[in-house]
Specification:
Structural class: alpha/beta
Strand content: 15-25%
Order of helices and strands: EHEEEH
Largest sheet: 4 strands, parallel
Strand order of the largest sheet: 2-1-3-4
Shape: globular
Length: about 80
């Protein structure tokens, strides 16, 4: 499955993705994060939409189920 970076403190998203069989690591917003297939972040704004070298899913306004669905869709498109 995919190697996914999840922004802290979203342990519940990490756990849900791991249950789907993905390899998941947590990261802090001030870390330099690379080498992942996809990322899950709190929100995307103009200041951070180019700081990742992989596609990201924004959790803003989404339930955990919505986030997992969006990640699965992106993974299936890879």
């Amino acid at each position: 499955m995919a190697k996914i970076a999840v922004e802290q403190p979203f342990e519940d998203v990490k756990t849900a993705l791991e249950q789907k069989g993905h390899e998941v690591q947590m990261f802090n917003t001030d870390e330099n994060v690379s080498g992942f297939d996809i990322g899950v972040v709190r929100s995307i704004n103009e200041g951070n939409n180019d700081e990742f070298d992989f596609p990201v899913v924004s959790m803003k306004g989404m339930s955990i189920e919505d986030v997992i669905g969006a990640v699965e869709t992106r993974v299936n498109q890879m």
